[in-house]
Predict the structure.
Amino acid sequence: MTEAINALSATALLQKYSRGELSPVEATRAVLGRIEELDADIHAFCLVDPETTLRSAAESEERYRRGQPRGLLDGVPVAIKDLFLTPMWPTTRGSKTVDPALHSGKSAPAVAALDRHGYVPLGKTTTPEFGWKAVTDGPLHDATCNPWDHQRTAGGSSGGSAAALAAYMAPLALGTDAGGSIRIPAAFCGVVGFKPSFGEVPHWPPSPFGTLAHAGPMARTVEDCALLMNVLSEPDVRDVHAVPRRGIDYLAGLGEGVRGLKIAFSPNLGHVHVTPEVERAVAAAAGVLRDLGATVTEVDPSFSDPLGAFGHLFYSGAANALRDLGTRKRELMDPQLVKVAEKAARLTVLDYLAANNERGQLCERMAQFHQKYDLLLTPTLPITAFGLNREVPEDWPSTRWPTWTPFTYPFNLTGQPALSVPCGFCREGLPIGLQLVAARYNDATVLRAGHAYQQAAPQARKLP
């Protein structure tokens, strides 16, 4: 019975609550039991506070008893990445250098929105220090393991959130994404991760990675991501980069399918080496979308790899985050983060502006591309999950994580909405993800296509 509850989507939980078939306390106890059972081995959570969580669930249960549920998520447990401020819990950002009392009592916009909708705060999920890399390990906690194989990485930087979802320790989670940090662990762990258009989900305090950084939903279904988007996209004046609210209901058109959509399928963006198993799985997914009525054309968007520009902009953010930290504090940090930050600190203003110029050209290129195509379909990653406590796979030709994430970081530069959806498994039983990208502010189209695919080709699942 407990496993059956843990496997329920947020949408299913809400339906059972409203019919009186399940209570928020029952659902929350089941999830907390799963965390207690598994997380000592997976390390998805860096903070769990059952007393606070169950008190929130009991308050939700009372609202249902009175017939007065609050908002869209009343009683649904949500895992919160440890980059989001929570008023009842400290936020360490995975670092020994952060004073947990710095923002005591304050809520990030996403957390404040969740609270307005009656969520149950489940705990804080792990992140590498300041969310700086695409695997989840750091000075404060053990490496977060992939639930499908505990000897492999869950990805990052939202690795704790993805692992919690994949292991059925949470039905919903929050993530952040400045270079793929929602989509990368979603692909490695076999869950759904959505990076909205930049500014669509308010985010505060500002990320050290500036306008590369997005906040967004993670779940096991696209439908649940759309539900969570309806909450997270509410306004918050603290985010000076947030776009004007458009009042979109992301669930409203979710079931309209893909018939008539024009989809560009790019197996490798014209320059990426993709493993054969990933290539086959994503090509099969393109075939499913074609069978559903989309016009799918194999074509590349024809841009050169923006790795250099991304590196200058991203690592400059890391340098900025460390600018006021002295030697003693730096000695407490991930030495590789210190290394990239110190290297980036030597960049000139002209280096930074040249990277911004390249970013602008890429934005223009993709805006023109989407005049012809509604969606771009690619692999989320060219590989499947590799070993723990490594920034790059074994025998990889480079030492830095962006070299194995070439499908994700370009769309942080452009600010486009991008979704990772599970599309199969490799021979070793590790998940593979497909990525759907649309023009900026066409978030609903991305979710609609991802939902259509997931409904037509549900991947066989078992509890990892």
Notes: The radius of gyration is 20 Å.
